[in-house]
Amino acid sequence: MAKNNKVILAYSGGLDTSVILKWLIVERGYEVITVTADLGQEDDLDGVEPKALKTGATKAYIEDLRDEFASDYIYPMLRSGATYEGRYLMGTSIARPLISKRLVEIARQEGAVAIAHGATGKGNDQVRFELSINALAPDLQVIAPWREWDLMSRTALTAFAEKHGIPVNSSNKHYSMDRNMLHCSFEGSELEDPWEEPGPNSYVMAVPVEQAPNEPEYITIGFEKGDAVTLNGERLTPREMVMSLNKIAGRHGIGRLDMVENRFVGMKSRGVYETPGGTVLHIAHQDLEGICLDREALATRETIIPRYAAAVYNGFWFSPEREAMQALIDQMQRGVTGEVRLKLYKGNAWPVGRYSPHSLYCQDLATFEECATYDHKDAAGFIRLQGLRIRGYADRVSRFLK
């Protein structure tokens, strides 16, 4: 019986993964099946299958994962309110577990012995892919050519491609880019110098703020249990919501971030990220929580955000800690239902109104007018109790410092 040598390759159709496809065949003797994920990156995927087959793949899958990506990955992360290092909405990170899950499913379906990916040995994606595969299919081998071969430059990759008849796009990409429906990231080129301003080619999803309209736009987003469900009164699926808001927020230059972050593998990296729709959803959701969540519940959630964000960023989506944190978050989100009205203008999104049937805001208590349900004198006792330890501390310090 012939030895099973099938490998499932995460394939984009670009130079790197095309070279990997041929390298796995000619240098390692594998039968290669490619998988390309449609995550709403708005690329033309029509030519991907024929290119994979021409390069030597025995089968090529093109998987439409847009709805699953939005509903089962983007929305749970948005419910958490998590951002990595307080700023980054983790558009690349959140896509990796879903891609890995589909790679494993197809590997099982095809009876493959291994999964291969094109992530380099310097980045976070190698960790994310492999930890996800470890969690879902620990018996499958993972092949990471960038950690094995000697093709360590674009010149070497191009030479290998030309030798084996792989078409090479003559227009080299200015940046290393990753795009899906949630975001687009840019790395490399002038961005490798943290002092240099990003160039004009680093705008795909959001216009430069100087080109944004001179008039503000108002929108209303409706939420149910922490999930955005309506836009200006129209009910939308998660995918439709994200992609519609991308267009609206993008034309106002919203959701652009230029930052130096700490990669999980230990180095610092400078990137530019565009997350127009996700930024508006994050701002609106956070604002609605202000009137829907109890103070201590919100404080509890805030304490786990760094851990949740680290789990997503570092590749631990399929982990007991992330699943436990998600259960706690989703429990808290049961009452986060209502609407937020936002003003979009010149790169910013401001909440200007919010309403919830579950609101904990009491106008009668908060008013500066006379209130029959609140006695100002009650505050004196509250302050005396809060001041017990402060007065004791002050007395002790004064005695010791004399």
Structure description:
This protein has a five-stranded parallel beta sheet, with helices on both faces. The protein has a five-stranded antiparallel beta sheet with strand order 10-9-8-13-14, covered by helices on one side. It is built from 13 helices and 14 strands. The protein has helices at residues 15-26, 48-55, 66-80, 95-110, 125-136, 154-163, 238-250, 276-292, 295-314, 320-332, 363-366, 378-386, 388-401, and strands at 6-10, 31-38, 59-64, 114-116, 141-143, 176-179, 184-187, 217-224, 227-231, 234-235, 256-262, 268-274, 338-345, 348-355. Helices cover 41% and strands 19% of the residues. The protein is elongated, with a radius of gyration of 25 Å. The chain is of the alpha/beta class and 402 residues long.
Key phrases:
single chain; 5-stranded parallel beta sheet; 5-stranded antiparallel beta sheet; 14 strands
Shape: elongated
Taking the alpha carbons of the first and last residues, their distance comes to 90 Å
Question: Share of helix among residues?
Answer: 40-55%
Biggest sheet details: 5 strands, parallel
How many individual helices?
13
Structural Rg: 25 Å
Structure classification = alpha/beta
Proportion of residues in β-strands: 15-25%
Going across the biggest sheet, name each strand in turn: 3-2-1-4-5
Order of helices and strands: EHEHEHHEHEHEEEEEHEEHHHEEHHH
Give a count of the beta strands, DSSP E runs of length 2 or more. Answer: 14
Give the gist of this structure.
Strand 4, helix 5 and strand 5 form a beta-alpha-beta unit.
